[in-house]
Specification:
Length: 352
C-alpha cells in the first residue's frame, strides 16, 4: 500500500503497482468482451469466466418480469462497479502524474533560485562539464524541453528530426545558442518549461512518447525531465560554489538510476549481468528507500544524494559515501548512467 512519511511524501510500493495492474487487467478483460458481464455468485466481483451474453443470438428462456429486472439490475451494478474500478485506476494515474509534475515544478524553481541573482557575466562561468558554461546548462535544458514538447504534440515530426540529427552532439546544440543574451536564455527556458508541463498534464494515460532511447510513459517522461533539471542544476550550483539542500524529490532520480542498470551496460555494448543488485538508500527525510530483491548478494548502500550524484555522473565514486558490495554492483556503479544518450565520460575524482 502507499504510505506517507513525516514530510507527506507518498511512497508507492510494489503492491500498489500490482493492485492497479490487476484492476486494469480486469477492466480490460471485461471491455474486450462483446457482451459484458454479471457478478459472480460468491463475491459480487466481476468474473470473466462467468461472463454471459444477455443479448444472445439465441432466444433466452422466458422469465418473469421481476426476475428479468433483478438480473438487469445486477448487470447494471456490475458495470457501475467496473466503471468505478476504471475511475480508480484513472485517478491513481492522475494523482501520480500530478505529484510528478508538482515535483518537476519544484525542481525548476530550485534552479531558478540559483539563476535569479546572477549578473550577465556569471552566465559565462565554467561548470564541471568540460567546455560548458552556466549558459550552456540552461540552453541545453530549454532545447530538450522544446524537443520533448514536439515528441508529445507531434511524434512523427520528432522521429523525423531525430533521424535528420544523426551525428549531432549536445555540444553542437549549445554552441548554436551562445549568441543569446542571459535574459533571452532565461526567458526561453521559462517559457519552454511551462509549455512542457502543460503538455505533459494533458497526455492521455497509457500513451507512449518517443525519446532518444526507448518510448516512455508520460510518468517516466516527466521523471526524466526532473532528473535532467536536477543534474544540470547541480552543475550550475558547482560552478557558483553553492551547496543545495537535498530533498525527497531525489527519489525520482534514484528510481531512474536503479531502473537504468541494464541500460548502463547495453549503451556500452556490454552484456547485462544476471546477478541482481539491491539498492538501499537513506533519503533526505530520514526514510529508507530500496530497490531490487531482498537478500541479494550485491548491494549498494548509502545516502540517496550520493547515489543520485553517481548515477547522473556528477560525482566520481571516490567522492561519495556509497558502500558497494559484490562484483556486479561494483561494475555497475563504475558506469552507472541514468540519462539517455551515448556513454557519459563521468567526472574525475575531486580528491585527487
Amino acid at each position: 500500500m502507499a504510505s506517507a512519511d513525516k514530510h507527506g511524501v507518498r511512497w508507492h510500493t510494489h503492491e500498489d503497482t500490482l493492485a492497479v495492474r490487476d484492476v486494469q487487467d480486469r477492466v480490460q478483460s471485461l471491455d474486450d468482451h462483446p457482451c459484458r458481464g454479471h457478478p459472480s455468485s460468491d463475491s459480487g466481483a466481476l468474473s470473466v469466466s462467468a461472463v454471459r451474453c444477455w443479448q444472445s443470438h439465441h432466444e433466452p428462456p422466458r422469465q418473469s418480469s421481476c426476475r428479468l429486472s433483478l438480473q438487469l439490475s445486477q448487470i447494471t451494478a456490475s458495470l457501475c462497479a467496473c466503471f468505478d474500478r476504471k475511475r480508480r485506476v484513472r485517478l491513481t494515474r492522475v494523482d501520480l502524474m500530478a505529484e510528478l509534475l508538482g515535483d518537476l515544478r519544484a525542481e525548476t524553481a530550485s534552479l531558478d533560485a540559483l539563476l535569479d541573482p546572477l549578473a550577465p557575466g556569471d552566465w559565462e562561468r565554467p561548470t564541471p562539464a568540460a567546455g560548458w558554461a552556466v549558459r550552456d546548462q540552461v540552453s541545453h535544458l530549454a532545447w530538450f524541453d522544446d524537443a520533448a514538447l514536439l515528441a508529445i504534440t507531434d511524434p512523427g515530426s520528432f522521429r523525423a528530426r531525430l533521424t535528420a540529427m544523426a551525428g549531432t552532439t549536445p555540444d553542437d546544440l549549445v554552441a548554436e545558442t551562445r549568441g543569446m543574451t542571459a535574459a533571452e536564455l532565461r526567458a526561453w527556458f521559462g517559457a519552454s518549461r511551462e509549455r512542457l508541463i502543460a503538455a505533459l498534464a494533458a497526455v492521455p494515460p497509457g500513451q507512449r512518447l518517443p525519446w532518444y532511447g526507448v518510448d516512455m510513459s508520460p510518468a517516466s517522461f516527466a521523471t526524466a525531465r526532473l532528473m535532467e533539471t536536477w543534474a544540470h542544476g547541480q552543475d550550475v550550483a558547482d560552478a557558483l560554489g553553492r551547496t543545495r539542500e537535498p530533498t525527497d524529490r531525489l527519489r525520482h532520480v534514484a528510481r531512474l538510476g536503479a531502473m537504468a542498470l541494464p541500460y548502463s551496460f547495453t549503451v556500452r555494448g556490454l552484456p547485462v549481468p544476471e546477478q541482481p543488485v539491491r539498492v538501499e538508500l537513506a533519503t533526505p527525510g530520514g526514510e529508507t528507500w530500496t530497490a531490487g530483491p531482498e537478500g541479494a548478494a550485491d548491494v549498494v548502500r548509502g545516502p540517496m544524494l550520493d547515489f543520485c550524484l553517481a548515477v547522473t555522473q556528477r560525482r566520481h565514486l571516490d567522492d561519495t559515501a556509497l558502500e558497494i558490495t559484490g562484483g556486479t554492483a561494483t561494475a555497475w556503479m563504475r558506469i552507472a548512467q541514468a540519462f539517455a544518450g551515448p556513454p557519459g565520460q563521468g567526472r574525475a575524482p575531486l580528491t585527487r
